[in-house]
Specification:
The protein is mainly α. The chain has 2 domains: 87 residues, no CATH class; 77 residues, no CATH class. It is built from 6 helices and 2 strands, in the order ααββαααα. Strands 1-2 form a two-stranded antiparallel ribbon. The longest helix is centred in the last third of the chain and has 27 residues.
């Protein structure tokens, strides 16, 4: 077995980190001056993202019991918005938990509900509306599954759902603006 040496993740080298770190205070001042400051939880997400992986903001010392080799491991932010590493870890851990402890060894069909970017903003800030959209989507999928089970297999089906709503950043992420394509007849 080949051992792989641990290498500290260096979020401070990412372009996203550098932009947020460099411009966060200016952005905060601008939003407050506009009279429409962002909610406190948004600022907390930014602060956690900046602190993620920074040894100066906290770490654990990990020691191998066999060889006594030690290493400092920086704390992570554990947010699900800006930090790609923490979001990726969260998604993987959630998927593993669902497979191992919730779903079990049964056939599974993966469905994804997407909405146009303008509606993402509404859904990101209105939990009740988000729940209504999710309920409508699940209802349509369940009706289709029941119909298919009866039509194709002569079975009655039992459907269940495990829904995951992405973070605010993912809900509001829109593609970069592009030039309109010329009209062609």
């Amino acid at each position: 077995m080949t051992l792989v040496a641990y290498q500290r993740r260096q979020p401070e080298r990412s372009v996203l980190f550098q932009i947020i770190h460099s411009h966060l205070r200016t952005f905060q001042a601008m939003t407050e001056e506009s009279g429409r400051p962002l909610p406190r939880y948004v600022w907390q997400e930014f602060e956690r993202f900046i602190a993620c992986g920074d040894l100066a903001r906290g770490f654990a010392r990990v020691i191998c019991p066999a060889c006594r080799y030690d290493r400092l491991v920086a704390f992570s932010c554990k947010t699900r918005s800006w930090c790609c590493a923490c979001l990726g870890r969260f998604m993987n851990e959630t998927a593993a938990y669902l497979v191992d402890h919730v779903i079990g060894p049964i056939p599974v069909r993966h469905w994804i509900c997407t909405v146009p970017p303008p509606l993402r903003y509404l859904l990101a800030h209105d939990v009740d509306l988000c729940n209504e959209v999710l309920a409508a989507f699940n209802g349509a999928v369940f009706r289709w599954l029941r119909h298919q089970a009866k039509e194709e297999l002569g079975l009655s089906s039992v459907s269940a759902c495990c829904a995951s709503v992405p973070s605010l950043a993912a809900l509001t992420r829109t593609p970069p603006p592009t030039s309109p394509s010329p009209h062609r007849a």
